[in-house]
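BUG: 3D viewer hangs when loading the predicted structure for this chain

Environment: internal workstation, default settings.
Expected: structure renders.
Actual: progress bar stalls at 90%.

Input used:
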Amino acid sequence: MPSDRKRPIIAPPRHPPRWAYGFVLLQCVRRVHSNGGATLSESPIKKAVIAAAGSGTRFLPATKAIPKEMIPLIDRPIIQYLVEELAASGIEDVVFVSRWDKKVLEDHFDQHPTLEDALEASGKERYLVETRRPGELVNVAYIRQKGPYGNGTPALNAASLVGAEPFVYAFGDDLVSSEVPFTSQLIEQYHKTPGLILGAQRVPRDEVPNYGMIEVDAEMRVTKIVEKPAPAAVTSNLVGFGRYVLPPELPAVLGEIPTGKGGELWLMDAIEAYMRRGGAVYACPVRGGRWLTTGDPVNYLEALFHYGLEREDLRDDLARIIKRLAKRL
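Structure tokens produced before the viewer hung:
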């Protein structure tokens, strides 16, 4: 049966702010939480924003008709792994910030009565359960990205929906495979050290020039952010990636800073501005797992093999295939 989860509605703001705060395309979710006098840092984090407006250029021509977030990792699209992790971490409401040509994202997290009826009639219960699962994970809202291109714009567009409370911000092509859902690790860190929490992972020193590196103190508070440095230029091997807990002040910072490199609005520029204003930023390294980006073909293939080898129904056959292919090297 379809989920009976109550789906309350967010109405568009009576006086919508300027373009930066987006507009509602579909019925959206807004929960009113009573925190019993608790501070924001003590209240549970229940909302997330997913940035999914990229064009997927590195996957053309596949992404000409399919959003990069919908490229399959075995039998689930990339984006579903992320949403499953958010749901497992206690997130209830998710705002997708995407583009006009990504309606398939909306369809995937909706019901499909015709397909569900056909599966039920043919007795394919396992496939029926898996088909319904995406639509039962979380409450969802969709808005179109407006304003300058850049990975900070979605957080700005969604500000009127998340309200004056901290929220999880995730890039749609960054996944984390870990024993404890990584988003719950981020939220735990936020409750210990309120501020802005940045997902991080240690990388080999020879990979340092490929990433934005972060320097931290003994309490994991970020002291410096360096974009693609030479290994000798930093003492840290911590790379920041696209998973955050953002404080309610951060969208306002995004709305005030100028666009940066390439005319884009960069989240990291806003984070650095937040730090200059005295805001606390803490790194949260992945515990018991690893970050997997799927934003380019080579890293996508690594993620594909990683998740395939984690599945008992595929592991042995996939291992044989990998060993056979390795003989060609």
